[in-house]
Amino acid sequence: MNNVHESFMRQALSQAQRAFDEDEVPVGAVIVMNGQVIAKGYNQVQLLKDVTAHAEILAISSACENLQSKYLPAATLYVTLEPCLMCAGALYWNKIGHIVFGAYDEKNSYRRVTEKNPFHPSTTIVGGILQEESAALMQAFFKAKR
Q1: Does residue 114 register a pLDDT over 90?
Q2: 119: number of Cβ within 10 Å
């Protein structure tokens, strides 16, 4: 299963690289159903001048539009950074089936605000997939900003 997770996480990393190249915080996401990517997203907060334009939110919106459904219980979100509380809330209401993330985020993840699981009770979570690559991209971005 890790090979499958790594393959889709590499696609999320490609989205994160797009964000990096556009001077956005490099977070990327893909949503997968039945082994196929159904949506992609990367942070576009600066471009859209919208604090809610996180990779996860944009990917969820795209997936829901594609499927004409507000719920994604059979889908897996691959995201390069552990979700923040805002994205966790969106994922809760979306009833996403699985969340797979790369780097842990001690400063801004949902865990900073709550120790309780903010996701839907049926959602499974796997962290640390391609963690080093995800963290390295984030570190390179913020190092360049200093």
Answers
A1: no
A2: 20
Task: Tell me what the mean pLDDT of segment 51-60 comes to.
Answer: 98
How far lies 113's CA from each of 82, 83, 124, in Å? 13, 12, 20
Distance between CA 92 and CA 48 in Å, rounded? 24
* Helices and strands of the chain, counted as H and E runs: 5, 5
pLDDT value, residue 118: 85
To 5 degrees, how large is the angle CA 134–CA 137–CA 139?
105
Is residue 40 within 8 Å of residue 61, measured between CB atoms? no
Instruction: Tabulate helix, strand, coil % of the chain (nearest 5).
Output: 45, 20, 35
Query: Which residues have a catalytic role annotated?
Result: 56
Six token digits for residue 142: 């913020």
Q: How far is CA 60 from the centre of its chain?
A: 9
> In terms of pTM, does the model score above 0.85?
yes
The token duo for 6 is 């790594």
